[in-house]
Write a structure and sequence with these properties.
Blueprint (H helix, E strand, L loop, with lengths): L1 H5 L3 H8 L4 H7 L4 H7 L2 H7 L4 H6 L10 H9 L2 E3 L4 E5 L6 E6 L4 E2 L8 E4 L9 E4 L5 E8 L7 E16 L6 E6 L4 E6 L6 H19 L7 E2 L2 E2 L5 E10 L5 E8 L7 E12 L5
Length: 282
């Protein structure tokens, strides 16, 4: 196949490769030196970049220093800060679809500016300049919003709350939270716990607090119950739900609330909300 390709003009090879995928184009770079030049050309990688790239780059808070479309593609895959540093944008390396992380500063968090309830702090493991930690509160409401025009069309997306739980946390799992994904056309609500499943604590809790737990769970809606899962960056994520992005531009709201337990809770650290294509893994 490489021999047949070598008989074609380089521009023709580049056009053919632009109809494949980023992984395919990357593999062709290893076939031969002549194919490498065609596979690295701007003709190929411009096709993999978003069609609204100028609008995206106009919001960039990260200085980009690239000499080719291929370099730009892979720098975007590593993520760049946007909108003054309160959002992060990236491309999925395999599909080229758009991914976003809204920092805690880009979210609406009830009482977030009241120091008795929350504290803003730097965290060396975060991609953002600050995260927010819950000190103590009764009712907790977190909301993020995104416009579908900032996402890739004809794609199912999932939203995840990115969190850590401090060693001195309390009251976070007394009652499950309600998670909701809503748009102008639909709204889906499920439930989620804020702490990973601890089988030993669960057994102890079953012995002493089972009746109370069942009573508390009856206060929230029925739905698929989720737990935090570990991410590759050292944080945990809680799935808030999923939604489909079609051709129509609309706003999507992503919520996590706990307002029915009326118990004090603290020790939750929030980095933000990530919105990424459903099948992609961290």
């Amino acid at each position: 196949m490489a021999t047949r390709f070598n008989m074609l003009p380089e521009d023709c090879i580049s056009i053919v490769l632009s109809l494949t995928s980023p992984p395919d184009a990357s593999r062709f770079m290893l076939v031969s030196s002549s194919l490498r030049s065609a596979a690295e050309s701007d003709i190929v990688w411009d096709r993999f970049l978003p069609s609204d790239l100028p609008r995206i780059l106009s919001r960039s808070h990260t200085q980009l220093n690239v000499s080719s479309k291929k370099e730009l593609y892979f720098q975007l895959c590593d993520s760049i800060l946007m909108d003054g540093g309160i959002r992060s944008f990236s491309l999925d390396k395999v599909s080229g679809r758009k991914c976003w992380i809204l920092s805690a500063r880009a979210l609406s968090i009830s009482s977030s500016n009241e120091p008795n309830h929350w504290t803003w702090t730097a965290n060396s493991t975060s991609r953002f300049s600050e995260v927010i930690e819950l000190k103590t509160i009764t009712n907790m409401e977190i909301e993020g919003r995104i416009q579908t025009e900032d996402l890739s069309t004809n794609t199912t997306y999932c939203a995840y709350l990115i969190v850590r739980v401090s060693d001195h946390s309390f009251g976070l799992d007394s009652i499950p939270c309600e998670t909701t994904i809503s748009s102008s056309t639909c709204s889906v609500t499920n439930i989620a716990y804020l702490c990973p499943l601890d089988e030993q604590k669960q057994q102890i809790g079953s012995l002493f607090f089972m009746n109370r737990r069942r009573m508390m769970e009856k206060r929230v809606v029925e739905g698929e119950c989720r737990r935090p899962s570990k991410r590759g960056d050292g944080w945990m994520e809680i799935e808030l739900g999923e939604f489909f992005v079609g051709e129509k531009s609309e706003g999507v709201k992503m919520n996590l609330t706990e307002v029915k337990g009326q118990q004090l809770k603290g020790g939750l650290i929030i980095e933000g909300i990530e919105v990424r294509p459903k099948c992609e893994q961290v």
